[in-house]
Amino acid sequence: MKKSAKNSTSSNSNSADVAPEEEWANGIPSEIIVTDVLDLHGTPMKIIPEMVAEFLDNAVRLELPTVQIIHGKGKSRLKHIVLKVLTSASNVMRFYDAPTQLGGWGRTIVELKIEKTALNDD
Fold it and tell me: Which neighbouring-strand residues pair with 92?
């Protein structure tokens, strides 16, 4: 599932012609494609807790009932950090390893608590 969110900065339709520093105003990209999958490969360890928490908050805001976090199999350091965040997150209903065909213990499936609001009851 993909949703697109534009930042308030203007976006150039031909990003190949735009220098990276111009495309990212104040360190934030002008357009972010939001999906239900967060791939943490290559992410610095120190920003993972904040990144996962923000990903979960955005998923709840977008009313995504289930998301996936890819942390890889490796030595499980990333998984340990992810599970620690998930355990303490109030918007998480439950989480578990993905089925083997989706990566098994290298990917965590997260079911989120989506609160029904008057806007959701259409």
Answer: 112
Q: Measuring CA to CA, which residue among 12, 16, 85 is closest to residue 53?
A: 85
Q: Which of 31, 35, 46 is nearest to 2 (CA)?
A: 35
Q: 3.30.70.940, 3.40.50.10710, 3.30.1370.110, 2.60.40.10: which CATH number matches 36-122?
A: 3.30.1370.110
Distance in angstroms (rounded) separating the CA atoms of residues 53 and 82 = 9
Q: Strands, DSSP E only, in 22-114?
A: 24-25, 28-29, 31-35, 37-39, 66-70, 92-97, 107-112
pLDDT range class, residue 34, cuts 50, 70, 90: confident
* Contact of 42 with 85, CB cutoff 8 Å: no
The residue extents of the domains of the chain are: 1-33, 36-122
Regarding predicted confidence, which is higher, 4 or 103?
103
